[in-house]
Amino acid sequence: MQRRNLLKMIGLLGIAGTVGVFSSCTENIEEKKVIKEQKDDKKANFNRQKMGIKDPENPTKAELKHTPEISIKETDGEFTRIEIMVGSQGIIHPTTVEHWIDYIKLFVNNNLVGAVEFEAGMARGFASFIVKNNDLKTLKAEIGCNLHGIWESSLTLNNNEQS
Ligand SMILES: [Fe+2]
User: Fold this and answer.
1) Residues by chain with Cβ below 5 Å of ion ligand 1
2) Which of 74, 127, 130, 154 is the most exposed place for a label (fewest CB within 10 A)?
3) What is the pLDDT of residues 45-73, one digit of tens each?
4) Ligand 1 centroid to 132 CA: how many Å?
5) pTM above 0.85?
6) Where are the alpha helices (DSSP H) in the chain?
7) Ligand 1 centroid from CA 148, angstroms
8) Ligand 1 center–CA 143 separation, angstroms
9) What's the 101 CA to ligand 1 centre distance in angstroms?
10) Cα angle at 102 between 96 and 103, to 5 degrees?
């Protein structure tokens, strides 16, 4: 009799444990859903206006701060490393919870190679990509500032040299 009760108890504990795990998983999924919705709400308020330098001969500090600088780094013959830093001539874009670079994209020959997203106030506007050397003609970097819109810069390559 005692053994039967013990088995019943073990069975009930097993069910309770399973329900507990299931419930915990459901809570976790709900929590992730809420976080995603909060992020989407925040993104709805991002400035997504396309911007640009008005007078390239005389860029303002605000324009330089949002200009992505493309640097071609080492190559192994098959791949080349390309870095993108947001901010030009030493004027670096700020990184705070209210104001930050929220993404960087790299395009090669007008094809998207990759994109990096940044959380608010967590990282500087910097990304590094290692791309195949197949017919590299143009490089374009596009970046987003949550407050000041979308900015881009391009390089035209001539025999894998910056022109
Ligand atoms: Fe900005």
Assistant:
1) 145, 147-148
2) 74
3) 899 999 999 999 999 999 999 999 999 99
4) 31
5) no
6) 2-44, 61-65
7) 5
8) 10
9) 7
10) 145
